[in-house]
Request: fold
Amino acid sequence: MKYSLVVDGLQTEVVLDDGKLTFASSGVSYEFNDIIGCDEIMTGWFRKKEVARVWLIERDPSNLMIKKSKVISGDQRKGFQHDLTEKLRKETKRPKQVLVLINPIGGNGTARKDFINIVEPLFKLSGISMDIVLSERPGHMIDVAKTYDFTNTDGVVLLGGDGSYHEVVNVLMRKRQEEQGVDINDQNSSLSPLNIPIAMIPTGTGNGVSENNTGSKDVLTAALHVVKGRTVSSHLLALYSNGSLLGFGGTASTYGFMTDLLFYADRKFRWLGRSRYLFVPMWMLLFKSHTNRVYNAKVTYYTNVTERCNSETSETEIYVEDRKLSGYSSFTSDTVVFNRKFWNMMTLNGNVIYDGNVKIDVPRMFIPKPTMCSSFLFYDSVALGSVFTFFKHIRKRTAMDVPSNELEVLNIQGFNVELTDGIDDEDPNMMMLKRLVQLDGEMFELKAPSFQLRYKLDVVQIFSSHL
Reply:
């Protein structure tokens, strides 16, 4: 289909064919998935004239996506608009109807504004219909996810942070497993994937899910991934204790220092907003001590272990990938056991080891998609200077060395933790902290002195053209 049009003031031939829009004068083509839609505006001061704008998606080198427009006029403009709109409706996979859940108080409280100014106009322009629910109280998103009829819904769009994702995904995953007859309390169960895709628009305090899956924390970019309509399979962390599932997570799980940090940040310093995550670590390191609480534990990692013979010493050494391990208690071909004192354990949903170095590079954590997650075990021998160095590397996302006497980092498929000193304490506050394990910012209370984590692959569909 060819049209003679005026594009940005220049007469040119425009072609709609083979899933593309082509401007012949420049030879530039856009796939239909990269076309948002058309609108009409009036131009001119005295002799006003109606023209159309075709809105397009373009990428910049930093994983961001932007929208730009071309002004279209000419005698064939109306026919071109009609035909382009029909092709976008029939030949793209963008959702037609979505449920939009908005957490208005998450992060810096920008979700409502971002929806009105960015997301809503974009979805309307692209022909996506919306059922909009504004969260009015804690747990409101959970109640909606439990009772909503998803029969005619092509996706769920969340404006919030990792906590919003955690709430909704846990409800939907539990419902899905119940429908499919899957025992969610069995750590070895193969979970049934969700049958409705999710978009995470980053307006919360922590936006790790959005950044992992779209490569950025930009609201417009996340919304444009929905418009493009492509979905990819994402993974979950499944946390268990005392024979039961505690919950599913999309970003990270921690026990020890980082759990304490998040507990204090949310209970005592929430009034600081996002800045509390810069202030509270310094406050804890300087006044609470990073080794204030140290645990004796048996940690069994599930991973691929290989044996190598040291040609100089003739001793057997074990490796996980290319990382030589030391300080372990025992191993098999698919497990390695550490009996150690530690002050913090952190597990991330994604791979942070690149070229043999540890690098917290969130946009790369799923590229290429990992089959294992990364777990950090901080021993009791870590010097305070090393802790500051670690946080500096996290903040700057630069590679770091891993001293074997301070920190163990492994890519794993899961682990078991047995707290050999138990979880009871004479101090009620200390006993409470001992019983807390964190997942996506949510706190779970342990009923027994052990917990397990398993990596569940490809169980959530995410709107993304990044991965």
